[in-house]
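As practice, study what follows.
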Amino acid sequence: MIPLHLLFCINRNFCWQLVQCLRSVVRFPCSEGYTVHVLHSDLTADDLQQIQQKVPEAEILGVSIDETFFQDFPETDRYPRQIYYRIFAAQFLPTELDRVLYLDTDTIAIQPLDDLYHKAFDGASYIACTHVRALFNKMNCLRLGIAEDVPYINTGVMVLNLKQLRQQQTTEDVLAFVSDKKNRLLLPDQDIITALYGKQIQLADSYRYNLSDRILAMYNARHPNEIRSID
């Protein structure tokens, strides 16, 4: 049986957050098991071993990335270089792997992930959610120079169609876009994926698969007769 493959892109500062996220995931046993791919540039073998010891229910595999490849990508304390690793995940992960579920380390799973992980792509390169309403989506489209019908996605939870991305993605296209729009990028990885692959994104229900306290509060404020809870 094929395990459920998860992807994380971190530096050493996020090891503990990763452990907490994974502990929330493995509370829901998966018959195939979990394989966790950790893309990084500064974790040691001891770091990975400690993560493995704290989450024995999953297989932890470290993938070391040459961070100099991303030296031309904008970087801040809030948006470190590792946020870009997920963009090229199809190049970094094993070629026999056709799909992977990416999670930000501040994600807490409150339901099993099987349903999202196994969703049919139906030709899409990504399955993801949007948290952006129509007006702000239009502003993002103007800023990035893309069509208004392209949804601006949240990259914190995504299923990646690795097989398709390997066929269509080129490093040159990504680098050209970054060079052209460098001064307009606000949420860099989200901007890049939305702009380059927005026509190939299948939207998932954000209230089911990528819910935050802020989004929930906004929904409840707009729908006082249909109050939802986090569970």
Observations:
- The radius of gyration is 18 Å.
- The mean pLDDT is 87.
